[in-house]
Design goal:
A 7-stranded mixed sheet has the order 2-8-7-6-5-3-4, sandwiched between helices. Strands 9-10-13-12 form a 4-stranded antiparallel sheet. It has about 425 residues and is of the alpha/beta class. The chain has 15 helices and 13 strands. The radius of gyration is 22 Å and the shape is globular. The protein is about 45% helix and about 15% strand. Bound molecules: pyridoxal-5'-phosphate (PLP). Pyridoxal-5'-phosphate binds near residues 152 and 201.
Length: about 425
Amino acid sequence: MCQNEDESVRKERLEKQGDKNVISEKMRPYLANNSAIRMMFEEGKKMAELYGADKVYDFSLGNPNVPAPQKVNQAIKEILDEEDPLFVHGYMSNAGYPQVRAAIAENLNQRFGTNFTERNLIMTVGAGSGLNVALKTVLDPGDEVLTVAPYFLEYRAYVTNYDGVLVTVEPDEETFQISAEAFAAKISAKTKAVIINNPNNPTGVVYSEDTIRALAAVLEEKQSEYGHAIYLISDEPYRELVFDGAAIPFVTKYYKNTMVVYSYSKSLSLPGERIGYLLIPDELEESEMTIDAATIANRISGCVNAPSLIQLAVGRCVDCQADLAFYDKNRRALYEGLTDMGFTCVRPQGAFYLWMKVPVKQTEAGTVKSPVEAETEFVQAAKKYHILIVPGSSFACPGYVRIAYCVSYETIMNALPEFKKLAEEFSL
Ligand code: PLP
């Protein structure tokens, strides 16, 4: 596909191609519903060419605007200068360099009072790959995986990759916290895994220790009832991005059948480098066999191993910290600015997203707009002011929008007057 193709041209082309039996049945729906976030990102680039980058307020993609820590760049240079190129650029164990995994395990142990070794870690091609490896390791066709809306929409595709079925738990729209009871109601004999994402993309909500305990208790009970493991896959690419003193509980301490998926994409601003890990604790049922299977899943998914140079670099930078002050300043400015204008937003406690309820334009008396109609109208209206935001449907939760505030502070300050015009258009 041409990267900058118009949506209407693309649709027409796809319709013409529709009956050509070229690509697989499984891939066809993806062509028709390509990621709205990615499309908006492309649209943002086009708008920037037309109006100038400083006149476009692109809040679509979770692409950090903070440069990676200098120490990461330094580590890359040192590795290239100091190490044998055959070692740096060569294949290694499919799970990754042992010394890198040991350094990460040691760092986790210091921070969370755990007892991991290199054996518990498999380096992956970011969190996306970590999730795929975890799911490939445990899913059989027809197995169900539960997650709560709104969620990172790729979960659906990842589960479908292994012929699993993603089952959505409806959100508590008051708090967007996890309700253990709501999960309990959806767990069945077919449930093989539950995915949670803490801090949450797109709501910015942080799940507390009590919440994790309650969910763990439900999962323990259901495991006993159905007589098989139910894995809790904790997707944590934003683990360090928490504000107001909030803390992310380390889930392996609360529930034995936990797998943790981590990524350096957000914390160290390395999304293009594709580096993260999957952690499988010894406490997990048949952990030895599961770790071996996951290592093979990593290899046969086509990744073989995580990229070597950046893997070695993060191994030298385990104590690097995310630039919290940068995101916190943006978070406060945006949340306070928008709520002052009358928008209803969830106060973000983590990640770098703000979740906003879409205001509904009152036009003709008695007309009731569906959440999808309302969000489409709002997202389109925002574009008039060069504001790009992502509709809630992209996270299986229509009636909301996600605003990614991992942009520069200037973008936020320049966008606020435009948001004000949008608020006025919607009579706030
Ligand atoms: N999980 C969540 C919740 C995300 O938001 C993202 C990326 O935005 C990912 C996983 C994938 O992260 P990575 O870039 O490390 O593959």
